[in-house]
Specification:
By secondary structure, the protein is an alpha+beta fold. The protein has 2 domains: 227 residues, FAD/NAD(P)-binding domain, CATH 3.50.50.60; 83 residues, 2-Layer Sandwich (D-Amino Acid Oxidase, Chain A, domain 2). The protein has 11 helices and 22 strands. A 7-stranded mixed β-sheet has the order 6-5-15-16-17-14-18, sandwiched between helices. The chain has a 6-stranded mixed β-sheet with strand order 8-2-1-12-21-20, covered by helices on one side. Helix 8 runs antiparallel to helix 9 and helix 10 crosses helix 11. The structure holds 3,4-dihydroxybenzoic acid. The site of 3,4-dihydroxybenzoic acid (DHB) has 11 residues, from strand 16.
């Protein structure tokens, strides 16, 4: 096969890019090792920034987000057993939307089918070839064992945090940070315990109350990274979550059957540059953030928004220098999001090594954030998403 852009990875980054390229009149082929069903059933984050929603709607990828998603005009930061509202609308005139990543994926996969997009699920043995030539390619084996080769102008590696394409960025530098905790995530059958998100810090650690539907809720609490989901009974989970949220206002979780339990790893990671010759990386393949603040999917969508624009100039207008803009433009947002995710994480979690000083300082930090408008505004601006700088 011959196409213009070969995309490794059919998650939200790869499919959104394929969609934006289609809108710009550029052909692509997407290869993905998982099945569509497997991706649809992998629960991930649920919060979209203002501009992620705008991109989904204005590009024609999803109108369902406005119908089935829920606008959130703020969050609660809860510590010392007291909730403090951070009102995004008042502070920065923006909202976020609760719309699960699995729904974003369904909309993008449907858009590719509707528009005749070429997405090949359940492939194996993917390798990327000749990225420093003007005819790079992707080789893979299909589900029936047939061998294929796709030749293109540009290859995009959107193959997630365990990316194999990343290794082809020969001169890359990688930045890491580990954290001494993880999240225990549950999906449960219960009515909502709060109308918007509650990010809580207690002497036991972090907890987050999120939602999915009227009858299914998503919640997380801080746990040891070595913990096994099987060690936690329903009773133990509810006791931990309720203890994290107890307070003088009598906040009470609405509990129910637990449908799914997962332990989520915590890591900050950036690969620089995000391009090598005619290979460009997008989303988790190039960077991962800890989940606090829900930046992962939003960063992936921001990457491909820049990438689609750069590829349009490189391919349709034959301006190959456009590719050089990609890394610096994408990284400027990536590092701001790295800082924000790190900051939200360290401000709200308890580390076993923390001293009494660290503890009191952390409460001082939270008081500074909720105690004044200027303290809250950074959180509101970063959480709802920085606007893309306009091109000069
Ligand atoms: C969700 C996940 C997050 O990491 C977060 O910060 C907010 C919400 C969620 O799954 O709903």
């Amino acid at each position: 096969t011959r196409t213009q852009v070969g995309i490794v990875g059919g998650g939200p980054a790869g499919l959104m890019l394929a969609h934006l390229l289609h809108v710009a009149g550029i052909e692509s082929v997407v290869v993905e090792t998982r099945s569509r069903r497997e991706i649809e059933q992998t629960h991930r984050a649920g919060i979209l920034e203002r501009d992620s929603v705008r991109l989904l709607v204005e590009s024609g990828a999803s109108d369902r987000v406005l119908r089935d998603g829920h606008e959130h005009t703020g969050i609660d930061l809860r510590f010392g057993g007291v909730s403090h509202r951070i009102d995004f609308q008042t502070l920065v005139g923006a909202s976020t939307w609760l719309y699960p990543q699995t729904e974003v994926f369904v909309d993008l996969a449907d858009a590719r089918s509707r528009d005749g997009g070429d997405v090949r699920f359940e492939v194996s043995g993917v390798s990327v070839l000749d990225v420093t030539t003007d005819r790079p390619g992707i080789r893979y084996t299909d589900a029936e064992g047939g061998e294929h080769e796709v030749r293109c102008d540009v290859v995009v590696g959107a193959d997630g945090s365990r990316s194999t394409t990343r290794a082809l960025v020969a001169d890359r530098r990688q930045y890491f940070r580990e954290y001494p905790f993880a999240w225990f995530g549950i999906l449960c059958e219960a009515p909502p315990s709060a109308s918007e998100l509650v990010y809580a810090r207690s002497e036991h650690g972090f907890a987050l109350v999120s939602q999915r539907t009227e009858s299914v809720q998503r919640m997380y609490f801080q746990c040891d990274p070595t913990t096994s989901a099987d060690d936690w009974s329903e009773d133990r989970i509810w006791a931990q979550l309720q203890a994290d949220l107890d307070g003088e206002d009598g906040f009470e979780l609405r509990t129910g059957r637990i449908l799914e339990k997962t332990v989520l790893p915590f890591r900050s990671f950036v690969c620089e540059p995000m391009r090598h010759g005619n290979l460009l990386l997008a989303g988790d393949a190039a960077h991962t953030v800890p989940p606090t603040g829900a930046k992962g999917l939003n960063l992936a969508l921001a990457d491909v928004r820049v990438l689609a624009e750069v590829l349009e100039r490189a391919i349709s207008r034959q301006d190959r220098t456009a590719l050089e803009e990609y890394t610096p433009r994408a990284l400027s947002r990536v590092w701001r999001a790295q800082h924000f995710s790190y900051w939200m994480t360290t401000m709200l979690h308890r580390s076993a090594e923390a001293s009494d000083f660290d503890e009191r300082r952390q409460l001082g930090e939270l008081e500074s954030v909720v105690g004044s408008e200027s303290g809250s505004r950074y959180l509101a601006e970063a959480y709802t998403g920085w606007p893309e700088p306009t091109q000069s």
